[in-house]
Amino acid sequence: MIKKAIALAVIICTVYWSFSTLMPSEVTSIDSPETQFSTHRALLHLKEIAQAPHYLGSKEHDRVRDYIVKQLQDLGLETQIQTHFSIDDSGNLAKPKNIIGCLRGREKGKALLLLTHYDSDPHSSVGASDAGSGVVTILEGLRAFLKANKTPKNDIVVLISDAEELGLNGASTFVNQHEWAKDIGLAVNFEARGSGGPSLMFIETNQGNAKLIKGFIEANPDFPVSSSLFYSIYKILPNDTDLTVFREDGDIDGFNFAFIDDHFDYHTQLDNYDRLDRNTLEHQGRYLMPMLHYFSEANLEDLKSDQEQVYFNTPIFKMVSYPFSWIYPMLIIAMVVFIILLVYGFKQEVLRVKEIGKGFLAIFSALILAAVVGYFGWPMFKAIYPHYNEMLHGFTYNGYAYITAFTFLSLAICLGVYHKVYRNNNTASLLVAPLMVWIIICLGVALKLKGASFFIVPVYFALLSLFVIIRQKQPNSIAMALLSVPMLVILVPLVKLFPVGLGLKMMVANTALVVLIFGLLITVFGFFKHKKLWGYLCVLVTLYFFVSAHLQSGFSSERPKPNSLLYVYNADDNTAIWATYDKMLDNWTTPFFGEQPEDASTLNNNIIDSKYNSGFTFTKAAPVKALSEPIVQVFKDTIIGEYRQVRLAIIPQRPINRMELFADSLTTFQSFKANGQVLKNKGKFKSNRLLSYFVADNDSLALEFEVPKNQKTRFTLLEASYDLLQDGTFEIPKREAAMMPKPFVLNDAVVVQKTISVP
């Protein structure tokens, strides 16, 4: 009994260890050595940068830029501002103002680039984490690096890009137009998609990653958190960073360092100075300093490789890697060893067909039940708590309580199922089924998701455990628990990471993985007689966290409800409406829409660009206000052959922040330019949206296009300013403390809609 208690303690401590070693537990003080990165010194910069939203085109954007430039100049870097119009593949047009600095090295060769962005997301995000944390990490890291009074071998270029939030426009401008771009050998990028948690490392490369991983391991950061699985998933998801532009347009390799916990703060007013996790900022600094010291001296001409590496982090060893060429041999060896152990187990009369069959029944029953719970559980809670739908990114304030609850519910399912098949001497037989399932999984990832091939490592330790059980029949429980340690430290963090990284809608990944892990832990729990009691305990823990989630399900000043309001004036017919994206109206929005708001389906013929392609939900007639509509000036309208060439300008008559231009999807353009930039999706846009222009410096929108001469070309323009609450004309009351502007959409805006026709 004592041995089993110790074995259970080993498992619990290992689970705790697997999380506690992911990031620093203490932060460096303000009076730490001058050559050391100090989180508290970095926070002094963050306090200056993250005072208010500083999106492109805002006055605060100019102040933040001036502050960063001065800090780089004070460090002795030669600085410049790069400004040019840029348009991305989705039609997001902007004129970023990149901050560029350079510290000259002692030798000629490729340069090391330190990269992040300084613009915040329009229009309410304060941008402390995303990506003020990256800015201050670089500023403090450079200060500490320069205090060593050592000239680096390689040039160190700093790019604090602009308009990253709009379409990676600043990065594109640098890569495609700046003369220094061709000299960049490696880029190191700092990003955020939340306000806390460990920072994850992702590699960006068009070739093999072998030399990059080798360099990363040799740089030897204190708390590396990464795996080849992360990047395999990252490439599948529609999430890009500035570094993606460097890889795609410049074939420049790089490292992303990004933290993703507390996703509910992402792009909201909660992304502020106070909510940034100090340990997370420390983690970013612990990455930068070894990367800076190592790669400022490395041969950046020699980073390309045709070899791919599987890699993953573990405590003690930090990073483990091996070549892709080992994947199939390791898999085949595991299969052969598994077959040998089956033969050996039958000869020793330890394995029995009937008991193995029960093992298959148990693992598949548990997997099916847990998968059903994970797949349907979150939609069920969204139905019970419909206000969760107002959080467009899909991660609620009580999301961690749900992750914990579903984890223990899956454990309860496992314990309940395996209680039914428990026999005094059938543990070895019960292990056969989960081992076979894991081998099949490893075969699948070897074929389709090679970055996850390190899953074979836990399988090897499970095979060793099976051998011990066959040999000893009643092995030492503590020894079995110790053999499970590698599996736990590799796989357990993924139980949390999957729903955090992929959203609570992917809770099924959490529940299924818990079952798969438990299947290998049967080497320990298979000898526990009272699984049913442990299952009841897990149910109680599950209920506790569901109750906790319920108690935190409402909104408050600490967990504000996102809501939205727009005023849309139609200049064509001199009418106006209120519009919202909210599915549930509240005390702030109801006065505008009444108890019977109108459906917004007709307004959604033209969906305004947003991260989640959100459309309006409700509208209501609004009083018409005197708003200055834009002027359209036609400078050229000429028919040459079968085509009509048109050049015109849309000139705002009021301070605005954004223009959305739509055209019928059947409209054909032979060519199309906006402010001199070639529209890449001309004639191929999936919706009616042609482009989104984010205005800075009060620039107008100049269009130059060629269309069939007989085509009736018509545009719908939505011209928006982010000043609905500031414009005294509308007398909009302030939100309650338990509310905030909804992120990811055009919000708190005064919109003028106008049709532009080319006769």
Plain-language structure description:
The chain is an alpha+beta fold and 759 residues long. It has 3 domains: 22-314, Zn peptidases (Aminopeptidase, 3-Layer(aba) Sandwich), CATH 3.40.630; 328-551, no CATH class; 561-759, no CATH class. It is built from 21 helices and 26 strands. It has a 10-stranded mixed beta sheet, with helices on one face. Strands 1-4-6-5-7-9-8 form a 7-stranded mixed beta sheet, with helices on both faces. α4 packs across α10 and α11 runs parallel beside α15.
Provide tags for this entry.
Aminopeptidase; 10-stranded mixed beta sheet; alpha+beta; 759 residues; single chain
CATH superfamily of the largest domain: Zn peptidases
Q: What assembly state would you assign to the polypeptide chains in this entry?
A: single chain
Helix content: 40-55%
Q: How are the strands of the biggest sheet laid out side by side?
A: 2-3-22-19-24-26-13-14-16-15
Q: Write down how many β-strands occur, each being a DSSP E stretch of 2 or more residues.
A: 26
* Count of alpha/pi helices: 21
Distance between the termini: 88 Å
Portion of residues in beta strands equals: 15-25%
* Mean pLDDT, all residues: 94
Q: What's the number of domains? A: 3
SS content category: alpha+beta
Main β-sheet: number of strands, strand sense, barrel status?
A: 10 strands, mixed
Radius of gyration: 29 Å
| The CATH topology of the largest domain | Aminopeptidase
